[in-house]
Amino acid sequence: MQRLHARYPFLEAARETVATEAVDLATVVEREEAVVDRATQRVITALEDGDTGEPHRDHRVELLSYPVARVLVSMVGENVLVRKYARAEAATAYDRFVEDIEDTTELKSVETAGLDLEALFAEFDLREAIHGPVDGEYRIDVGTYLPLAADLWDDEWRLVNQPLERGEVPVDEGELLALLREAIRERIEDGLPFDVPESIATDLEEEAAEVREILADLDLTREIDTVVPDLFPPCMKALLDRIQKGEHLPHHSRFAITAFLASIGMTTDEIVDLYRVNSSFGEEMTRYQTDHIRGDTSPTEYSPPSCATMQSYGDCVNKDDLCERIPHPMAYYEERIDDAEDEELEDWREGEADEAESAGD
């Protein structure tokens, strides 16, 4: 099995290699502890660190750990795990192909170094849709651009902010590589979770239980239906305050607070009403974006960004002691909810409803 396939297990050629060699996955999980250990590491590291960890030195073990990791993700069956796993695999692949593309040493070859842009274009049938480069700039057909950029929430990716010309969107090489990362993420996420045969699931139940335990410790899946702004993490409290002051938020900030509010039980109508104070408020677009984040009009229900992501966007502000030991805004809020006295847990929406009723009287 080639190093290339172990390095990029999402490739069609890698899948064909596994099929050609007639690898029986049930036998692998029963007999090959190294593969199972590496697969478990892929999933756990995806949850904890956002990548897939150090590759195994044996190319066969590394390659086979990928389908076994997909089995583990499917056994757990949580949407948040699917999303985080797919993003971590794509992030790892991105780091590797950026390194490959930048590698201009004489030792570079298909076998030893990996992929170039042409190979990636061919892998995802993008060659006809991407033109260039001309003076360092590529142009990508808008019909291809839109689905690849759909989950990139920075304002710069929105079509309205792009100089669209003759049905093409200009991108530099860095932006093109980010779009290729999204193509990889979509492929990895496609089909997850799937039904796992009992013959395989039985041998992996201990590993799946370990993943479930870690997922539970991260507090990313618990259902919350209580809105108490005083208990919000500082980052979300600051974003909510800016909304209530009528400030215009960058796209990534709007995504973060909207996903957070949806995750703690607020409806689309309630979230849309919050944005009405903004002078540039557009109900149709706000409703569309909120429904998309909630998963009502998209195949994915988005979770709020992690603390690391909030920090990278500059939205991590006013950190307190709890922030120092919490990896996610939802985990922060859940801990504050758990520690709060009953009298502190008055739902903000109930107070709003009482005020509206009093005004009606």
Give a structural overview.
There is one protein chain. The chain is globular, with a radius of gyration of 23 Å. By secondary structure, it is mainly alpha-helical. Helix 4 runs parallel beside helix 10, helix 6 packs antiparallel against helix 9 (173-189) and helix 12 crosses helix 14 (283-294). The protein contains 17 helices and 3 strands. The N and C termini lie far apart (76 Å).
Low-confidence stretches: 105-112
| Percent in strands | under 5%
Helix count, DSSP H or I runs of 4 or more residues? 17
What's the total number of strands?
3
The largest sheet, given as strand count, sense and whether it forms a barrel, is: 3 strands, antiparallel
SSE topology string: HHHHHHHEEHEHHHHHHHHH
Record the strand order, biggest sheet.
1-2-3
Radius of gyration: 23 Å
Mean pLDDT across every amino acid position = 86
SS content category: mainly alpha
